[in-house]
Amino acid sequence: MATISEAKSSLKRILVENNGDTSQPAVQDAIKALQSLSSEKRVDAEWNITPNKHFHTGRWRTITTPPFPGRLPDDGGKAKYTLGRMSFNMFKPTKAVCAIHEIVNAIEPLGNGESADEQVSSWEQSYNSEVLMEISVPRTKEVEETTVLPAKLINYGVCTPASPTRLGVKFQSGTLKPNFDMTLKENEMRAKAWEETFEGAIAKEADAQSVLGKVATGASNILMKLMMGLEPPVDCVDFTQTYTITRPIAGHLDILYMDEDLRISKGNRGTIVVVERI
Questions:
Q1: Whether pLDDT at 32 is above 80
Q2: What is 145-172 written as a DSSP string?
């Protein structure tokens, strides 16, 4: 019989062979095998993973396909999406092409004086999704070559136990910003390209909409504000974009497997994600 360590190694190998796609039968079989081994070796009759607050704390790197819709055709390299599909059309320009380098889930204490005990019935920590990516900017009159802009898209949220094997998650805000120092001389070309791409990008896209498009966008924003307290991004002088949600809708993660360095979860939309501690 395989050990848990061997089953984990097998899962990672199969993920690589299937480009991180957890919908593939081979990947799902590997996950079930790991779950079965874990269940057989468990001492407690009932798995009670979420109350251990500090077990979840840390930075976790996604090793499965990015969980965004509308993946663009690529050459087998980094997964590519439009900025609009990655952000529910929240960030602009929506048609900017983004190549994802890494997705990190950061779970950290909130510093609100909660108990430091290992096992507690209720706790709350940050649950941030950090997407490191490169945005391709086409050539312009000022910039003769296609420029690649390192960027970071962060969705800020909180998580708390919802059941012995489920984490409740609420996202409260998100920011798109450059992932390089725009003040350095060596980044002057990139800084110029970022400014040209994002200066007034929200207003420009709104102005380019048809009358019906503007009506639809306005109606959607009003509905989201009523339902979730959404404040959509606006153009800022530092060329970043930020949204906030004052009444976030709760989602959840069902923990399928977890140990000190690997977590497999299934979200409320059915997406299975595998992450490893870094």
A1: yes
A2: S-EEEEEEEEEEEEEEEEETTEEEEEEE
120-146, pLDDT tens digit by residue?
557 899 999 999 999 998 655 555 567
pLDDT tens string 156-209: 999 999 998 999 999 999 999 999 999 999 999 999 999 999 999 999 999 999
Chain centre distance of CA 169: 12
